[in-house]
């Protein structure tokens, strides 16, 4: 299993941050590759999200199930189709890191564990002469850039303004 663990600081309390982290239907605003999110459920454990992704000549709908919600601290998920992947959004208070112009701060963690070679090759319609291994090789380096974009836009929504966001990489495949 490969693992990505990233974090950043938001200048708000966990109670203010968590609703943004939890609102997956807003995520298409944070990335160019997520075209639409559809939800079955209320957003609590058991809710299923269809995430319609598009990159290059590929399109794919990932189906993700929320496995646990412990507001305002944690939300865990698992993909339920075509690839072995699971992860967590976690929000921890970190008031000591707040800048002078902010009352408090929280650290937002994103963790994903996945096996890129567990993908069902029949689930993705690949162009002729393109292998799944080639796609995995091209996508993996883009994950960090994509994560950075998502985090910057998410923090801008949380704080109500855009700023430079420091992305801490704790673990990367």
TrEMBL record:
InterPro entries named among the record's database cross-references: Polyketide_cyclase/dehydratase, START-like_dom_sf
Source species, domain of life: Archaea
Name by which UniProt lists this protein: SRPBCC family protein
């Amino acid at each position: 299993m490969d693992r990505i663990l990233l974090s950043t600081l938001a200048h708000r309390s966990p109670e203010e941050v968590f609703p943004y982290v939890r609102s997956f239907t807003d995520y298409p605003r944070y990335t160019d590759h997520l075209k639409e999110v559809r939800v079955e459920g209320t957003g609590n454990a058991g809710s299923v999200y269809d995430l319609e992704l598009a990159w290059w000549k590929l399109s794919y709908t990932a189906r993700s199930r929320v496995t646990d919600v412990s507001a305002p601290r944690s939300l865990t998920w698992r993909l339920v189709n075509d690839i072995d992947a699971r992860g967590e959004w976690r929000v921890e208070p970190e008031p000591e890191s707040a800048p002078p112009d902010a009352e408090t701060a929280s650290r937002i963690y994103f963790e994903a564990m996945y096996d890129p070679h567990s993908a069902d090759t029949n689930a993705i319609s690949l162009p002729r002469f393109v292998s799944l291994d080639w796609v995995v090789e091209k996508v993996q380096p883009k994950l960090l850039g994509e994560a950075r974009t998502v985090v910057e836009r998410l923090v801008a929504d949380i704080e109500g303004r855009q700023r430079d966001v420091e992305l801490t990489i704790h673990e990367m495949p």
